[in-house]
Amino acid sequence: MKAFEGGSAGADKAGPGRTIPLTPSQIAALLESTCALIEGEISALGDEGAQWHPAPGDWCVNECVGHVIEAERRGFAGRIRDMIAGLPLAAWDQEAVARERNDCARMSQSLWMEFMGLRHDSIALVRSLTAADLERSGEHPKVGTLRVKDLLQEWVHHDRNHTRQMLAVVQARVYPHMGNSQKFVGE
After folding, report:
1. C-alpha span between 116 and 39 (Å, rounded)
2. Alpha-carbon span 76 to 83, nearest angstrom
3. pLDDT band at 53 (very low <50, low <70, confident <90, very high)
4. Would you state the pLDDT for residue 1?
């Protein structure tokens, strides 16, 4: 079986291997499901585990969560609110923000609480969107026109990208201690 790369083939068409866009209700449910995964990983890892880096320059779990927080605030819920209000869209320097936040040094439970406060409000926002809101758009300085309905789909993609990254950090931590069972990797 071939791994799915997350491309766009078949977008907006129904049928085998094709999809139609998720509804705001489905998006809200998927955003909510991300909460359980992040909570489970942070709780199980504790502070030391959530601060572990697989390699120099790689993000730890805390930094992944910090990025999801800022993306929520600046890139998703923030941009959707700006589009609905007719305000201009802004880019943000993700690396600079990550350095400023210094999430690696934070207690993982404080990050979890910050994330949950934002996510709760974001889920309510998504559930409140009207058909007219979904058609709202704005011009992003880097990527051009963004529509609310497109940004909602990317939000789910982004969540899964960074939860996969968090899980990969934990995999990297246990891999050296797997002995001969490393030979099972990829099966």
Report:
1. 9
2. 10
3. very high
4. 35
pLDDT at 151: 97
Tokens 């963004």, residue? 146
Instruction: Strands of 22-154 (E only): list them.
Output: 137-140, 144-147
- Nearest by Cα to 31 from 104, 100, 124, 150: 124
Q: Which domains does the chain have, with CATH numbers?
A: 24-175 (1.20.120.450)
**Residues 84-105 pLDDT 10s:** 999 999 999 999 999 999 999 9
Kindly report the backbone phi and psi dihedral angles of residue 23, in degrees, each rounded to the nearest multiple of 5, phi listed first.
-80, 160
CA–CA dist 173, 150 (Å, integer): 35
Phi, psi of 138 (to 5 degrees): -155, 165
The DSSP output letter for 144 is E
Averaged pLDDT for residues 161-172:
96
Q: Pick from 149, 100, 160: which is nearest to 126 by CA? A: 149
DSSP, res 177: G
For residue 31, which amino acid is it? Answer: L
Cα–Cα distance, 103 to 109 (Å, whole number): 11
Stretch 108-137: mean pLDDT, rounded? 97
Contacts of 16 (CB under 8 A, 6+ apart): none
C-alpha 118/C-alpha 60 separation (Å) is 21
